[in-house]
Amino acid sequence: MLIPMPALLFVGEANDRAAKTAHGIHYWRPNQCVGVLRLANGSAKLPLREMTISETAACGARSMIIGVANTGGFIPESWTATIIAALEAGLDVAAGLHDKLNDKPLLRETATRHGRRLFDVRHPDAASIKIATARKRSGKRLLTVGTDCSVGKMYTALAIEKELRHRGVAADFRATGQTGIFIAGSGICVDAVVSDFVAGAAEMLSPDNTPEHWDLVEGQGSLFHPAYAGVTLGLIHGSQPDALVVCHDATRKRIDDYEDYELPSIKEVIELSVLTARRTNPAARAVGIAVNTSKLSAHAATVYVAAVEKELGLPCTDPVRFGVASIVDRLLG
Amino acid sequence: MLIPMPALLFVGEANDRAAKTAHGIHYWRPNQCVGVLRLANGSAKLPLREMTISETAACGARSMIIGVANTGGFIPESWTATIIAALEAGLDVAAGLHDKLNDKPLLRETATRHGRRLFDVRHPDAASIKIATARKRSGKRLLTVGTDCSVGKMYTALAIEKELRHRGVAADFRATGQTGIFIAGSGICVDAVVSDFVAGAAEMLSPDNTPEHWDLVEGQGSLFHPAYAGVTLGLIHGSQPDALVVCHDATRKRIDDYEDYELPSIKEVIELSVLTARRTNPAARAVGIAVNTSKLSAHAATVYVAAVEKELGLPCTDPVRFGVASIVDRLLG
Fold first, then answer.
1. Are residues A198 and A68 in contact, defined by beta-carbon separation less than 8 angstroms?
2. What is the pLDDT of residues A164-223, one digit of tens each?
3. How many CA atoms lie within 13 A of B239 on its CB side?
4. Which of A100, A176, A196 to mutate to test the interface with B (most CBs of B within 10 A)?
5. Which of B134, B230, B272 comes nearest A195 by C-beta?
6. Whole-prediction pTM value?
7. How far is residue B106's CA from residue B118's CA, in Å, rounded to a whole number?
8. pLDDT tens per residue across span B58-86
9. What is the distance between the alpha carbons of residues A281 and A219, in angstroms, rounded to a whole number?
10. How far separated are the first and last CA of chain A, in Å rounded?
């Protein structure tokens, strides 16, 4: 799967929170976004030109991406006319929702008639994913892991890709979730893969490469997450990471949506991640800690990352506030 | 899903190895098996009366179970006539293969016409499985874990169920693989569940129960298996085991089919299993070790289990040779 770019971002009736997929795509790939299309009740604000379908062709758009993550992951009727218009205007259409574009007969017929494609990125092509071979691959890999979900694993992997490329090091972000897939243009939603195949999917995502090439694999979940840890462990084993970066939210105390569960310490996550990663790559090591400090003052954030760095002996940074140079120094050092 | 019993076991052209599902069902539920049906080239030998479809009704059979695990998990054309005859004779038909009975239009139409059901036990009803809540449940649970796949996790769980019931303790085996599901009459193939839902499936399998009731949950894979460890971790978290029994093959040195990977030690499996289990059940503890010593002499087996018992301070037994009384003593002690 390779979604043709550049793209028009469709945000429907979403607010900024629900349009987080569109925001992520725009933040990381601004040059791949020609504009935004909002429906009448939408409130999402993106710093992009608002555009109708008929205007997009002149701007070179090749696809329309549905940049919405709504509760339940459904495709409302109110979007149908816009999706059909996009197909008729020569755009492919991509979504990362639980509902599939390809399950809507009207959309499928319209796409076929116009020779266009519908991408449902949350739904991996099961037939193409194999059981992991666990064979050691060439090239290098970094995987982001975390104390919880939604602590910056995608952002950190992308920031490290950017920093490595800036330093002239060959590097590719490897997407494992819907927003990441839209940003990279390809990838596999590993949490939607049948459980026997998660490590195999991670192997497919980061194939053999040149010796000095880095894959930056987007992590998912947490080894300490009571619902999703299996996904994380399969991803760790299949990615065979040489390097691990632990992501954390400075002010979170409990697992999101699982109030009975304390957040693990960063140290616990380092220890268990390295232990399990060494099963498929004995050279695995932690190279840094990425903390979301957005709820702290600038001063408190500085104090926080310095304290973690001192306690754990690894570079610690907030990638948004301070960049990831210190982690990349350690990675290449 | 509840497969109506008793059943006729269909083994097609299988040899004894491929008919291991039928052997497992017969071993554990002899009273639920009315007979065996073999096709012309079959060589599987079961100590059951050979029977044609027309004879089964008089014996009270309510279903025909396809007791074969062939390579690729396909349903050959040569079985079609027998499956149709079974449906016409009033039997439901159940299979645990990768191919689905329900995907064969001729079989589906025949089943519908005769008001019969087709069970594909390897394919969980995705819509019914929820994300894990991680809420603490009432009742007690034991999970078998292992140094590898195929080291006796199902056998051990069933042997402990039998021993507990023999002692008057309420206990239920909870099946997580195809043979186990046929033996129990219900269950979920957790390795066929979408990865996000594995812990949720384990929760469904062992729901709230009376305080002294034991669920004996069939383990899958190994935390140290380079391809399947994610399934194991999801099962550990979702099962919330109070007790863990580690299963092992006394003569295996390498992970089956993964020659580059050394088998972990029993001690490593105990430590990582207890550590991860305590995330959702802080009371989790190891209560015993079950070893397959079938390739050792009786004397060597006795020496082996005594040595492991001494080294690790836990009851160690070969469930087939010596039973599981020592493990159950520890469990209830």
1. no
2. 999 999 999 999 999 999 999 999 999 999 999 999 999 999 999 999 999 999 999 999
3. 34
4. A196
5. B230
6. 0.95
7. 12
8. 899 999 999 998 888 899 999 999 999 99
9. 17
10. 35
